[in-house]
Each structure stands twice: as C-alpha cells, then as structure tokens.
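Exercise: predict the fold of this chain.
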Amino acid sequence: MKYVKQDSIIYSDSFSSYSTIKEYFSIHKKVNHSLHFVDPVTRVHTNTIEGNWNGIKLTLPLRKRTKKLIGLQLIRFMIKRENPEDFLDKLLSYLK
C-alpha cells in the first residue's frame, strides 16, 4: 500500500472487499457489524474513522474532493479539528 506502513494495525468492518488486507498488513482487526458495532471481546470498532469521514464530508465541498486536492484538504481538516482556535499558527508551524 502506498501511504500506509506495512506494520500498521488495520481496523475495519467485515465487508468482503477487505478480505485481502491480511496479504498486505501483518495485523488486521475487524468487527462484524451484523453482530456488533463494537466487538465485545477485542473492543475493535470503526466508529472513529466513520465519524471523521462524516466530518470531512460535511465540511468539504464535492468540488474539492479531487485527487489533486484531497491530501491538502485532509491535512487542513485534521489540523483545524485539533486546533480550532489557532489553526493558522499551527499550520504555519508545520510548514517550517
């Protein structure tokens, strides 16, 4: 995978498209949403990423969701979410 380290822990639901993830990453933890939204044993869930993606979609117009712009828009979203009061200062500190 181009942007994710091979030793990353991947969390997903049990959607069939994710069945080959274990071929690329050493640890793949999943939750079966037909049984639970949070696995009662492993505590695995996808609520965080689903909430973040929903927040991105609410704040990012469709016309800015292009391959060319999405990286910058995701960085902007993450910095602004973590630093709502001093977004510009924090952004500039990362650019130094």
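Check your answer against the key: The mean pLDDT is 89.
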